[in-house]
Design goal:
Helix content is 14%, strand content 29%. By secondary structure, it is of the alpha+beta class.
Amino acid sequence: MSTNTPTPTGKTRKIKGKTVIDIEKCKGCELCTTACNENAIHMSEGINNMGYRYAVVVNDLCTGCTNCAIVCPDGVIKVYREDRKKKNLVATISNVQSSMKVNIDNPSKEDLSKMDYL
């Protein structure tokens, strides 16, 4: 598996990510769709058991930047980043009750360029 993935604009992406959303706990706030610079997250047409339209991911577009997991107020998003041999969990945030600090181990230049709120 190659780590260079073409983007919709034809550019080559060096990092490939996978985002997993617990759709039954998603409340459809759409913060993750706004935070996603790759437009990899969209709102579903269907609703979950709580009656909310939930977020869905197009993982072919995901770079694993973690923006979506960081902004999710309910902590229902996990982000994985692929290397050549395995997927590594890089972000999961849960039960946020007050202010928090997020550290990303070994961020790439591509990660840092997409995090305009730092």
